[in-house]
Structures are given as C-alpha cells and as structure tokens.
Amino acid sequence: MATQSEDRxxxxxxxxxxxxxxxxxxxxxxxxxxxxxxxxxxxxxxxxGYEFIKRGKDLWISTKKSTQALAFINSxxxxxxxxxxxxxxxxxxxxxxxxxxxxxxxKQATKNLYQIKESDLLPYxxxxxxxxxxxxxxxxxxxxxxxxxxxxGICLDNRIKNQIPKSRFIKNWNLKSx
Length: 178
Prior knowledge:
Elements: H1 4-7, E1 21-23, H2 26-40, E2 50-55, E3 58-63, H3 70-73, E4 84-88, E5 96-97, H4 99-105, E6 113-115, H5 118-125, E7 130-131, E8 139-145, E9 148-156, E10 159-162
Parallel strand pairs: 6-8
Antiparallel strand pairs: 1-2, 2-3, 3-4, 4-5, 7-10, 8-9, 9-10
C-alpha cells in the first residue's frame, strides 16, 4: 500500500529516487537571463529577489527566502516542490518557458508578443491554434489579450500552435456572459 507521501506525489520520479534540487551558479544563471532577454525581452532585473533552482531536467523559480529550505530537502525531507516550474529543458536547444512562468513574468516582456483578437480568444482558450494572415518569425510567442497574458504559443509557418496545457482548456464558456 502506498504511503500518504507517495499518494501526494512527493517522490519526483517513478522509481521513488531522489532528484536533487540545486541553485544555479552565476554562469548558468547568466545563460537563463540571456535567453529570457533575447527571446522575450524580459530583463534580468525582473528576477531580483528570486532564485533559479535546477531539479532534474526542469528549472524552477522561487523567492530567495524559500530556497533556504533546500538544505532540508537535499538531506532527505520529502517534499513535492519549491517554487514554480519556470522552464523545461533550460540548457537544451528545445527549452520552453511554462505557461505559469510566462503569465507572471511575461508582463515585463517586450519581444515576441502576439496580441490575440477577441474573436480568436475563446477558440484559443478551448485549445485551438491561431491561423495567421501575416508572416511572423518562427519561435515561441507570448499570447496577450489586452494587457493580460493568456499563455504561450509556438509560431510555425502560418499558425501559432497552442501551448496552453490541456487541463486548462475552457470547455463551456461564453464571452458574452462577462
């Protein structure tokens, strides 16, 4: 029978093997800052007061105060997460910022923003891709509606492929009811 900790997913992998949390060094941090600035125009000062933590293949972000708990976690304390998953595969060519991360820090972005039209918003929130009439540079785009960050998409040829997690798709919602 599984323990309560196992039921809640406190073990990071299927074999219940410990994956270590590790604060990024200055060189690794600079790689991340350069990526976020060059891809989205998010300046490094947006992350003052935060630390990046490497856990497995993912990069997490947390307040500096929260990262003090790392000593306890790495000593064997079983805990699910510290902070917010920021990037998947952060040091590979196929790195991707998460929707949560972009919805929080994307407000400071100045590049690769795509303003979605009201008529496209509901279909996008339901999981549909955006079909483009204009040609945009390939790559990840931050999808905005007005001043709000909707999520991420990846521009491929004449469309922006929806990157919102399926669990967040809106199934039954009517914009006119707002």
